[in-house]
From TrEMBL, chain A:
Provenance organism: Jannaschia seohaensis
GO biological process assignments: tetrahydrofolate metabolic process
Protein name: Sarcosine oxidase subunit delta
Molecular function as annotated in GO: sarcosine oxidase activity
From TrEMBL, chain B:
Keywords, ordered alphabetically: Cytoplasm, FAD, Flavoprotein, FMN, Nucleotide-binding, Oxidoreductase
Cofactor section: FAD; FMN
Alphabetized Pfam families for the sequence: DAO (PF01266)
Protein name as catalogued: Sarcosine oxidase subunit beta
Record has Coiled coil as a keyword: no
Compartment annotation: Cytoplasm
InterPro entries per UniProt: FAD-dep_OxRdtase (IPR006076), FAD/NAD-bd_sf (IPR036188), Rhodanese-like_dom (IPR001763), SoxB (IPR006278)
Species, as recorded: Jannaschia seohaensis
Length: 85, 413
């Protein structure tokens, strides 16, 4: 069992967490092309190595940003989404 | 050397000195008519059909590890076509039909055993969904039967119908079954080699050669290799190649785990899936119980699984078959699977001209190997879709014509 850090509750078992999405996408403007909208909805980097993702800690229902390595599964750290740039 | 009862018998009389390596270990050439990246089942099948059906034999398969060492050698070998949408039925049933003749086609026993598969239904409401599934399959021309609780008990006496999730019946596909995963890779490899194709193992693609906006070859750990056309079938590493080629994919890589127990006397003669647990199991010809379940829900390239999913899958097996609870686990492992938003594969142009894709099979691409190879070969040889691969083009994510088998056919992810 791996433990992840919730910025609000501290280290908790992995089963309490839910992967939401990759961080860093910006919603395109309303009259963008179909391709841009599809890219926003579906396309992902899915990087091997360093990744920056949005996760949910289900018990407290807060979303936050987690930085980790998708090949070694090492976690670098978590930061609250609120107040993030 | 052709494999036959006679050659085996003759070999037996002459001390088995007639065996030869099943394929060559050629050095890379500077240029090929076609290159296939990835020496898993899909890549090898692609090269085979390029040579066999399209007469293109100046072909190389480029594999960074060993042939069949990716998901093809790690999967639980279930072959079935119990999907919902007509597009999927056409695709997966083409694969099952090709599997039916594959041992003869390749002169290699792939041990395809059509022992049947039960997808259990756990409630009255699920029985209604099962009936809907069955009708959809029949409309698509795929065999299926609805089994009552009594029929399930008769067919699979060891299955516990009154566990944590009671079993009310289920959908039965009689033509479904299992195959020998390594034999599929090795059989295609040997047959492809015999058609003159170079199988380059221990060769990693590290970049694409792009000239005038077109892919004209690959950079590899053994030098640059030029090609008229390139195909990629690298499963969980599809996004890594996309990064190298500058195109985008809607794929997330996850670990999927599988398990095998010590060998037992024959006790289970079909494949059983209990969707409420996500656990499915079959017994291999060696006697081991081969089982697996749902994905680890953490995007991963780690090729090893997480503990909570192990526990869930094993608990599911023990609930389905209490008599298996004391059986010892022999091995367990993980593979990195390429999951798309609609749980359907991607077959088609990549966005980089000259490069075609076969990926996104997720947890279920072993069953599709002959069809995936057939269709990618068609694309590479003709530059155009076969009618069966057309709906699986990347453009479905732009047009919105998704083929959502995740929702329709109870795919466990
Ligand atoms: C545990 C588990 C159980 C499964 N169970 C089933 C099942 O019961 N039924 C079913 O139908 N499917 C199942 N699957 C899915 C199935 O295994 C895959 O969909 C299928 O094997 C994919 O075949 P492939 O040839 O596309 O990929 P792979 O067999 O993974 O081959 C891809 C190859 O590409 C190579 N490669 C990657 N990057 C590069 C590079 N840069 N250069 C050169 N080579 C590269 C890799 O080394 C690899 O050998 C399962 C998968 C797993 C992990
Ligand atoms: Zn929390």
């Amino acid at each position: 069992m791996q433990r992840f850090d919730c910025p609000f509750c501290g280290p908790r078992p992995e089963t309490e967490f839910h992967f939401a999405a990759e961080a860093g996408k910006t919603r395109p403007v309303r009259d963008c092309s179909d391709a841009d909208w599809a890219a926003y909805l579906h396309m992902v980097r899915n990087a091997k190595g360093a990744v920056c993702e949005i996760w949910v800690h289900r018990p407290c229902r807060e979303m936050f940003v987690m930085e980790r390595d998708s090949a070694t599964m090492e976690v670098q750290g978590s930061t609250a989404l609120r107040g993030a740039p | 050397m052709s494999y036959s009862t006679l050659s085996l018998f003759w070999g037996g009389l002459t001390g088995h000195r007639h065996w030869r390596p099943a394929w060559r270990e050629p050095a890379p050439k500077a240029e090929y008519d076609a290159i296939v990246i990835g020496g898993g089942g899909h890549g090898l099948a692609t090269a085979y059909y390029l040579a066999k059906l399209h007469g293109i034999t100046r072909v190389a398969v480029i594999e960074k590890g060993w042939l069949g060492g990716g998901n093809t050698g790690r999967n639980t070998t279930v072959i079935r076509s119990n999907y919902f949408h007509p597009e999927s039925a056409a695709l997966y049933d083409l694969a099952v039909r090709l599997y039916e003749g594959l041992s003869v086609e390749l002169n290699y026993n792939v041990m395809f055993s059509q022992r049947g598969m039960l997808v259990a239904a756990h409630s009255e409401a699920e029985m209604e969904l099962a009936a809907r599934q069955l009708n959809a399959m029949r409309l698509n021309g795929v065999d299926s039967e609805l089994l009552s609780r009594r029929q399930v008990r008769k067919r699979i006496p060891l299955l516990n119908l009154d566990g944590r999730y009671p079993i009310e019946g289920g959908v039965w596909q009689g033509r479904a079954g299992t195959g020998r995963h390594d034999a599929v890779a090795w059989g295609y490899a040997r047959a492809t080699d015999r058609l003159g194709v170079d199988l380059l193992q221990q060769t990693e693609v590290t970049g694409f050669l792009i000239e005038g906006g077109r892919c004209t070859g690959v950079e590899t750990s053994r030098g640059t290799i030029r090609a008229g056309v390139v195909g990629a079938a690298v499963a969980g590493h599809s996004s890594v190649l996309a990064g190298l080629g500058g195109y985008a994919l809607p794929i997330t890589s996850y670990a999927l785990q599988a398990f095998v127990t010590e060998p037992l006397k024959p006790c289970l003669d079909c494949v059983v899936l209990a969707p409420a647990h996500g656990t499915y199991v079959s017994q291999s010809d060696k006697g081991g119980l081969v089982f697996g379940g749902g994905l680890d829900r953490i995007p991963s390239y780690a090729q090893r699984g997480t503990m909570p999913v192990q526990e869930q899958v094993i608990a599911g097996l023990c609930d389905m078959f209490p008599s298996f609870a004391k059986v010892k686990l022999l091995r367990h492992w993980g593979g990195i699977v390429d999951v798309t938003p609609d749980s359907s594969p991607i077959i088609g142009p990549s966005g980089l001209p000259g490069l075609y894709l076969n990926c996104g099979w997720g947890t279920g691409g072993f069953k599709a190997i002959p069809a995936g190879g057939w269709l990618l070969a068609h694309l590479m040889a003709t530059g155009a879709h076969h009618e069966i691969s057309r709906p699986f083009d990347l453009d479905r994510f732009v047009t919105g014509r998704l083929i959502d088998e995740g929702a329709a056919a109870w795919i466990a992810h």
